[in-house]
Every structure is written in structure tokens, then in C-alpha cells.
Write a structure and sequence with these properties.
The protein is an all-alpha fold and 109 residues long. It contains four helices and no strands. It has two domains: 54 residues; 54 residues.
Length: 109
């Protein structure tokens, strides 16, 4: 095999994405997850101070995103730690969703 054949095989294996691009995407996802957590905290703190209410809706979205992310990682890499984290995040999602539904049912129109 010559150099071009090896590069072509590598591109087909990586779906035309080079390793640097995949590394950048992974780092971007990691930073985005941290920013999402910080924004959820900020929104929760502001709503607690201004309205004396803890908002559940940002956390529902955040835990749904993280749970899905780790579930996809598990399906691709088959690491048990990713499956464990996916289950933890989906459990947190369900817990916050239950509190959200309880609060909605308590609201009188």
C-alpha cells in the first residue's frame, strides 16, 4: 500500500473527518456541557432569588441532553461507564420531570 491508499482508507474509516477535527468536536462538546450546567445553575439561582421558585425545566433539558450523549457514547464504544452515566442522567431527568409535573398539577387556572 502506498501513502495515498493508506490516507484514503483512514478517511473512509473516519467518515472523511481527521483526528484533529474529531478532537476539536469532542472538546467543544465538553465545553458546551459545562456552559449548559452553568447556565442552568444561573437560571435556577436567579429564579430562586427573584421569584422564590426553583425551576425544573432547564434541568429537564440539560439532563436529557447529557443522558442522550452518554447513551450514544455507549452504543459506539460499548464502555460500561458510559452506560452507567447515561442511566444516572436519565434517572435525574425522570426525578426532575416528576417534580415538574407535580408542580404543574398544583397550579390552579
Amino acid at each position: 500500500m502506498d501513502k495515498e491508499e493508506i490516507l484514503a482508507k483512514g478517511r473512509s474509516d473516519n467518515k472523511n473527518r481527521d483526528l484533529a477535527e474529531m478532537s476539536i468536536a469532542a472538546e467543544a462538546n465538553s465545553v458546551a456541557a459545562r456552559v449548559g450546567a452553568a447556565l442552568c445553575c444561573l437560571v435556577s439561582v436567579l429564579s430562586m432569588q427573584m421569584r422564590k421558585i426553583i425551576l425544573c425545566s432547564p434541568w429537564i433539558i440539560y439532563f436529557g441532553i447529557l443522558g442522550t450523549s452518554y447513551l450514544v457514547r455507549f452504543t459506539k464504544a460499548k464502555r460500561k461507564s458510559d452506560l452507567y452515566l447515561a442511566c444516572v442522567f436519565f434517572l435525574m431527568l425522570l426525578t426532575v420531570l416528576v417534580f415538574f409535573i407535580i408542580r404543574l398539577r398544583g397550579v390552579k387556572a
